[in-house]
């Protein structure tokens, strides 16, 4: 790690960890959604909305700290990008749940559970990695695995699209379900953006 003569603001590490913890909560709510009936889905959506609001608060706290700190633990633009990418994940997960409820989807297509399992694993890895920003040690396996998971998510997404367009669903249902699986794919992409940002930070700090 690069030697520094100046002290650094360390509260960012705790705030990044808090953001990642909200994402883990969101991923668990997505898992709950899979086996839930219509009434339960509404309640899950309300809890997801609360988790998303908590995630927003965590992101705003990072931005406030960034604007009020003279010295930061790493480059300001990387702090901003990391916080924004974490926030994007939470937004996409909340959007997916909201769409399921708003569209009154009766049954999610086979394969969505695989998408959500990938997101849940990526959420766990991200939460485990955030404390590692303090030392930048042992983070390589994290971003390699998240990138592998994103590739897996791409494959699942393509198979889901093929399934949706196989003639089983009517046109309106295809539009609804495609939007949901597309948003879940965007969440997987956002996890990769977080991992890539962590890799960039680690390289700069080495």
Automatic annotation (TrEMBL):
Superkingdom to which the source organism belongs: Bacteria
InterPro entries linked: PhoU-like_sf, Put_Phosphate_transp_reg, UPF0111_domain
UniProt record similarity statement: Belongs to the UPF0111 family.
Protein name, UniProt field: Phosphate transport regulator
Organism: Streptomyces badius
């Amino acid at each position: 790690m690069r030697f520094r003569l100046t002290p650094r603001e360390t509260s960012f590490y705790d705030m990044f960890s808090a953001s990642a913890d909200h994402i883990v909560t969101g991923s668990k709510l997505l898992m709950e959604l899979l086996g839930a009936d219509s009434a339960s889905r509404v309640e899950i959506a309300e809890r997801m909305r609360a988790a998303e609001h908590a995630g927003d608060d965590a992101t705003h706290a990072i931005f406030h700290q960034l604007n009020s700190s003279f010295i930061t633990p790493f480059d300001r633009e990387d702090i901003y990008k990391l916080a924004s990418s974490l926030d994007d994940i939470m937004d996409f997960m909340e959007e997916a749940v909201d769409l399921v409820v708003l569209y009154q989807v009766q049954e999610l297509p086979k394969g969505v559970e695989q998408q959500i399992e990938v997101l849940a694993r990526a959420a766990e890895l991200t939460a485990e990695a955030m404390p590692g920003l303090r030392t930048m040690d042992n983070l390589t396996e994290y971003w390699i695995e998240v990138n592998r998971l994103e590739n897996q998510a791409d494959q699942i997404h393509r198979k889901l699209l093929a399934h949706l367009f196989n003639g089983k669903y009517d046109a309106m249902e295809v539009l609804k379900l495609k939007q949901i699986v597309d948003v879940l794919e965007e969440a997987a992409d956002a996890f990769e953006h977080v991992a890539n940002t962590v890799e960039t930070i680690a390289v700069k700090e080495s």
